[in-house]
Design goal:
heterodimer; A: 101 residues; mainly alpha; Helix Hairpins; B: 170 residues; Four Helix Bundle (Hemerythrin (Met), subunit A); 2 domains; 76% helix; 0% strand
């Protein structure tokens, strides 16, 4: 292979950094979900890359499990967005304060 | 050394990840998120894992991105374009991002994985299928139950309780 393992890890580090930035700065619920998706994809990229270079089938298997669980997480997250939007007519997380004591 | 396809893919992936978070419109943002997810699928193809790549395309680009797009379209028009940001918070976030990238990147570049290369053939996707139905079958069943439970939970959460059935049809 012409590409080395460290190249893939560096791309994944860049995606992780962008995701952390999004989670820290954005206050829009939907954009925070985007950031979570980007972080999950960086993790999947690492799993498959290490699985390719070992080589072992476990990396790809774990990546498939992770993609499926992420799909479930997005479904629940989007329905939470819909419920919160119905209650507050907004998607700004600073407004979601009904659990705050 | 990385080849041209890798460089192009990483530019597309990272660029559209930034665009997904920074574009003013949430609709264009979710389309840019599709670009990121597709770029990751391209990386999976480069890593000789076509099965995972097609799974990624089907699940992420095919269903999750479309689901996000539909949810964005349910939101009020002015909220799609509204951007509330604290500039101090933004600089703190940028600093956090740079610290993460530099620290983790320095660790990776300094560690032993820089010398790892492989000439061995890639894992055959038949082995993954065999793994799924032999060693991982309890996890597979558990995953199916979790998926069914979470989708049912999402439907229950999003159900409107203030609207009666006869109102819905009129």
């Amino acid at each position: 292979m012409t590409n080395e393992l460290v190249d893939f890890t560096l791309v994944s580090v860049a995606l992780l950094g962008i995701g952390i930035y999004g989670l820290a700065v954005k206050r829009n619920f939907i954009r925070m979900l985007f950031a979570v998706e980007i972080i999950i994809n960086a993790a999947n990229l690492n799993l498959v890359a290490f699985g390719r270079f070992l080589p072992h089938s476990g990396g790809q298997t774990l990546a498939l499990f992770s993609i499926a669980i992420a799909a479930a997480e997005v479904a629940v997250g989007l329905s939470l967005i819909i419920v919160a939007y119905r209650m507050y007519q907004n998607v700004d997380i600073a407004d979601f304060r009904s659990l705050k004591g | 050394m990385a080849d041209a396809v890798f460089l192009a893919l990483s530019v597309i992936t990272i660029g559209s990840a930034i665009a997904a978070l920074e574009l003013r419109s949430l609709i264009y943002g979710s389309i840019a998120l599709m670009g990121t997810l597709g770029g990751i699928a391209g990386f999976f193809f480069l890593l000789d894992s076509p099965f995972v790549a097609l799974f990624q395309l089907a699940v992420y680009v095919g269903s999750i991105a479309v689901l996000i797009l539909f949810t964005v379209m349910l939101v009020k028009r002015e909220l799609i374009f509204k951007k509330v940001e604290d500039s101090r918070r933004k600089y703190a976030g940028l600093a956090l991002m740079l610290v993460t990238m530099v620290a983790l990147g320095a660790v990776f570049l300094d560690s032993g994985i820089k010398t790892i290369t492989t000439d061995e053939p890639a894992v055959n996707f038949r082995d993954i299928g065999i793994d799924f139905v032999t060693y991982y079958w309890p996890a597979l069943i558990l995953m199916a139950l979790i998926l069914a439970g979470s989708v049912t939970g999402a439907l229950v959460l999003a159900k409107r309780e203030d609207v009666e059935n006869d109102q819905r049809t009129s």
